[in-house]
């Protein structure tokens, strides 16, 4: 299957939009899971798109950026991984390890280039401030979208338009002469979401909230066991009795999310009620016994 021109066009346009959504629009369409969904819809394979997008989302759970720092562009990596995975019939986990993560890392350079290019418009704005030209200030502010969008659109377009042959040759080589390496990359792609969880747990205040962590893990494990047992029992009964029409489903991610939300709401209510009221002459800070500011005060 080849990537058609209109698919390249739509994926390129979305690549330009997603970075604008990430830095200002904030519609959540700039998340890798949505990038996978949209790329899957465009390529005609939503399942593959969600597998790669969801895996990439889990991989970067603990990755963040502060101030003007650049981070890996998981969205562009997801777009290319989904497109080539569907077009070339790649294993989604292999596409994640060989395309999504490397491309996301390389896109740091184009992100830095976009930031440098935007200084041109920043200096123009400084000059227009001196002359009180408010319309020109607004225009140059909006012109800043151009370098940001092009920093994603150009690499994605070039890769989709001219990189198909290279990727196909590499995939064929990995699945033939270097099958051991291809299988290893597939395993590595499956492990990457666990790495994302590990990074996230490293930066979360687990030591402070470890009772919630343990309780949430145990409850989830128990519910999964119970629901899986009920699903297996229902399947067995349905095989014995054709008139048995009750369907048993597994524990949904929404149920797990609601458990986590309940714990978060309890902790938020507890900390907000115990927070000291600011006194006259300055705001009071909630410090612990070691003199460190609590994480909910940051």
Report how far apart the termini are.
Answer: 51 Å
- What structural category do the secondary elements indicate? mainly alpha
The geometry reads as globular
Query: Approximately what portion of the residues adopt beta-strand conformation?
Result: under 5%
Give the strand tally.
0
Order of helical and strand elements = HHHHHHHHHHH
Radius of gyration: 24 Å
Helix content: over 70%
Low-pLDDT regions = 289-294
Blueprint (SSEs and pairs):
Blueprint: H1 5-25, H2 32-43, H3 46-59, H4 74-88, H5 92-130, H6 134-143, H7 145-162, H8 164-174, H9 179-203, H10 210-240, H11 253-274
Describe the structure.
The protein has 298 residues and is mainly alpha-helical. The chain contains eleven helices and no strands. 73% of the residues lie in helices and 0% in strands. It starts with a helix and ends in a 24-residue tail after the last helix.
Features:
298 residues, mainly alpha, single chain, 0% strand, phosphotransferase system, PTS_IIC_man, transport, transmembrane helix
Short description:
The chain is an all-alpha fold.
């Amino acid at each position: 299957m080849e990537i058609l021109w209109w698919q390249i066009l739509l994926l390129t346009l979305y690549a330009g939009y997603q970075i604008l959504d990430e830095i200002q629009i904030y519609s959540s369409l700039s998340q890798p899971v949505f990038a996978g969904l949209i790329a899957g819809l465009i390529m005609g394979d939503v399942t593959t798109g969600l597998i790669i997008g969801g895996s990439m989302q889990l991989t970067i759970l603990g990755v963040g950026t502060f101030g003007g720092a650049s981070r890996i562009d998981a969205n562009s990596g997801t777009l290319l991984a989904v497109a080539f995975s569907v077009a070339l019939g790649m294993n989604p986990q292999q596409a994640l390890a060989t395309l999504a993560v490397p491309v996301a890392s390389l896109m740091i350079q184009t992100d830095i280039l976009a930031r440098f290019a935007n200084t041109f418009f920043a200096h123009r704005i400084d000059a227009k401030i001196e002359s009180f030209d408010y319309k020109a200030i607004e225009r140059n502010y909006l012109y800043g979208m151009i370098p940001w969008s092009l920093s994603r659109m150009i690499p994605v377009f070039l890769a989709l338009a001219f990189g198909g042959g290279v990727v196909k040759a590499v995939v064929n080589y990995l699945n033939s002469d270097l099958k051991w390496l291809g299988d290893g990359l597939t395993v590595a792609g499956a492990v990457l979401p666990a790495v994302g969880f590990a990074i996230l747990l490293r930066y979360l205040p687990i030591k402070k909230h470890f009772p919630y962590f343990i309780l949430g893990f145990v409850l989830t494990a128990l519910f999964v066991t119970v629901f899986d047992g009920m699903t297996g029992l229902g399947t067995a009964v349905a095989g014995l009795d054709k008139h048995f029409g009750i369907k048993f489903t597994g524990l949904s991610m929404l149920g797990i999310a609601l458990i986590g939300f309940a714990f978060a709401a309890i902790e938020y209510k507890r900390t907000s009620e115990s927070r000291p009221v600011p006194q006259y002459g300055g705001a009071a800070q909630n410090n612990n016994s070691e003199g460190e500011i609590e994480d909910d005060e940051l």
